[in-house]
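We store chain and fold; thus.
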Amino acid sequence: MLCLDVGSTWTKAALVGGDGALLGIAQHPTTTPEVLSGVDAVTAELGAGGLPALACSSAGGGLRLAVVGQEPLVSAEAGRRAALSAGARVVQVQAGDLDGAGIRALRAARPDVVLLVGGTDGGDARTLLHNAARLAANRVRPPIVLAGNADAADDALALLRSTGRTVVPAANVLPDVGELNPEPARAAIREVFLRHVIGGKGLSRGPRFRRLVRAVTPDAVLAGVTRLAARRGDTVLVVDVGGATTDVYSAVTPVADAPARPRHAAGEAPCQRTVEGDLGMRISAPGVVAEAVGERLLTAGQASALGVAARRRADEPGQLPADAADAAVDGRLATLAATIAVRRHLRLSEGRFGPLGAQLFVLSGGVFRHGRPDLVAEVFAALRADPLLRPVLREAATATDTGHVLAPAGLLAADGRVVPADHLLDRLLDRAGARPPGP
C-alpha cells in the first residue's frame, strides 16, 4: 500500500507492506498547479506504480474553517475544538448574534467550510436560528456543517437550504454543558472536505486526486496519534513542526488515582490538537522569532540576529540547509517553535496530563526527520529543560518520527487496515524503547 501526504511544500510517500513493514519512503517538492506530478514522482521513486494508494493533503492551505457559535467560552469554543480535531485550521470564530460586521469578517477570512453551532440540546435555540438566517440571507458561500442544538437543527437546516446553501447536518458538538461530542462534526467536516473543498482548490485537473485523498493531513496524524496512545496504553504528546504551522497533538489515558480537575464548560476530548499558524520553519519563521521574544525565550539582540535568517527562510520556503551553520539555525527555530507551541497547548489543556505528565514524547516534521541525531538530541534536551514544560516531559520516553509513519498509520487505520497500522507504530515505539508487550 502506498500512503501519500501531499503538503503545501513537500509531497511525501511511504510504501507499506501487508505486514506493516516500512519498505521505503520518498519525497518531492509539491507541484502546483498539478500536484499529481509530485505524486507520480514519489510513486516512481518507490517503484509503486499500479499499487493501491491512500492520500491525505494539506496543499492549497489545507482546510480553512470558520466557527459560528453562541457564547465565546461555551459553544463557540466547543466548535473550535471539534474543528481542530478534524484537521482544520480555524481562521475565524464568531460568537453571539451575527451582524453585518460579523458577516464581513467571515468573508474576509475566506473559510473553506463554516461550522455552525450553538446551544445545548433542549436549550436556547434563538441564536442558532438567528445565525442560520443571517448565513442564508448573505453571500457566505462555503459549505456549512450544522452541529448545534438538536431541537432547533431541523428549522436551521430548512433556513439554510431555502437559499441553496450546501449544508451537512451533524449531531450537536455540545449536547450538554461540559459534554463535548466532536466525532459527528468531525466526520461531517471530513465529508465536506472530500466532496466540496479538495476539488475547489485547483490542485489538480480531473478526478484522480480527489479519489486518492481520504483526509486532511492533520486529521490523519491525529488518527495515528490516537492509535499510538491506544497501542501503548499511555499518554502521548506529539509536536509536528512544519514550514507554515506547528501542530501539537495529545492523547491522554485517564489515571484512576489522579486528582479530579475542574470540568471545562466546553467539554474535553481525550485526544486534542492545537495548531499554531504563526509558528513554522519557513513561511512562518518570522513569527517564531517574534513570539519567542514575547515568551522571553530570546532577547531583543538575539531576535535581531535570528530574524534576518528567519526572513530569508520565509522569502524562500523551499530552501534546504546549505551547511552546518544553516542546520544550526533551523535547529534553533525548531526548538523555539516547539517550545512555544507546547506551552500554548498546555495552557489550553488546563493540566490534563496530571501528575505523571506525558509517557511518550514524539518529534515530527522534516527538520527532525532529516536533522543530525545530535541536533535532534539538543532539541529534546532544550524542551525538557524549559521550566514550563519540564513537569510534563521529565519522565517521557522520546522518539522521532523519522519514517513519517504517523499520517500513514492514521490513513491505514481509518481504512480498516489495523494490523499494518499497528506494526508501523511499533516501529516508532521501538525507537523509544516503548513497544507494548504482545504480538
In short: Residues 255-263, 435-439 have pLDDT under 50 and may be disordered. Residues 16 and 127 are 49 Å apart (CA to CA). The chain has three domains: 2-60, 62-195, 218-431.
